[in-house]
Amino acid sequence: MNIAAITLTQEKIALKTPFVTALREVRDVEFIRVKILCDDGSFAYGEAPATKAVTGETLESIRENILSVKGLFIGKEIAVSLETLHQTNIGSSAKAALDMALFFLLAKQKKKPLQEFFHIKDTRAIKTDITISLGSAEVMFEDAKRALREQNNILKVKLGSDIAHAIEVTQLLSRKLPHATLLIDANQAWNLKKSLYYLRETQNCAMELVEQPVSAADLESLKKISEASRVPILADEAVFTLQDVKDVVQNSCADMINIKLMKCGGLSKAVEILEYARKEKISCMLGSMLEGPYSINAAIYLAFAYRDVIQFIDLDSPLLYKELPHELDFVYETNEIRFK
Ligand SMILES: [Mg+2]
Asked: What residues have their beta carbon closer than 5 A to ion ligand 1?
């Protein structure tokens, strides 16, 4: 089973409402879809959205990156191609798109259904959080109330650099919505001083974690914040690869890590990180960017396969789509994700 062709398309899925974080605002999920076709007629898809603010990649660079390496795989075997792919130095999202298509093809080559290929035994529903976009405190409170009414009670709350606003929103949600589980995400918007101030001023608030308070490169501050905080600190933008994860964990810079396919370079690399996390007993979030259905499928298989180490699941893209695409292998019932 050798690779015969690799083709690319650009896809777009409309969102119900715009998605806003400290770093960006978007109205559609846009992504590159790659199809890998083999000489026996079998094929699989991979996808990568542009998240310039996080990985530095645009749709154009993802396309160019994939086109620049695709010649290396034509006529080659799947496992060999996977190895070759991870020796290239293309962007992590471009790599993730190719990696997941190759990974899915490995399952086809072994003639295994994906559930079996991923060693998934426990198929009880898993729960995703839902994002509350950055906005005025009133709008965020209304959005959070609506999420709870719709039975989405795990809230990923996006906060920005205005620390007074961040404290106000946290106090408001924690006080008025006691049944919500709050996951606070600062997306690198604070510095050490602001972070410590935020933690002091929200001591009375019930929250599960604070995600990436300071810039990705500032591991020193991240460590100081983790030491000072009673709330677990989660590293997101600071950890792309397994080596990053080891650096953060071994130096006690954070309590938890956020794994995303687009940061680590795809399923095969995410599996390596999750195996490490399982061995070292590090609790994880399995996150995503705003992504298309095939890359969300890939992440959901992982979420089921590693439910013992994945404490929080941030795979709410399909909840934000205007309509659910048929390519999803799973159904979303409020915040629960089940096999179709
Ligand atoms: Mg994050």
From this structure: 185, 211, 236
Q: For residue 320, what are the contacts with CB-CB under 8 A and spacing of at least 6? A: 15, 16, 17, 19, 29, 131, 290
Ligand 1 center–CA 204 separation, angstroms:
23
CATH number, domain 3-111: 3.30.390.10
Whether 236 is a known active-site residue: answer yes
Q: In whole angstroms, give the CA distance from residue 167 to residue 240.
A: 29
pLDDT digits (tens, 9 = 90+) for 136-184: 999 999 999 999 999 999 999 999 999 999 999 999 999 999 999 999 9
Q: Could you tell me the pTM of the whole model?
A: 0.96
Known catalytic residue: 185?
yes
Residue type, 141: F
> Which of 95, 260, 263, 269 is an active site residue?
260
Q: Angle at which helices 219-228 and 242-250 pack, to 10 degrees?
A: 50
Fold of 117-339: TIM Barrel (3.20.20)
Q: Which of 95, 156, 158, 269 is catalytic?
A: 158
Contact 256, 282 (CB under 8 A): yes
CA of 144 to the centre of ligand 1 (A): 18
Q: Please confirm, yes or no, whether 129 is among the known catalytic residues.
A: no
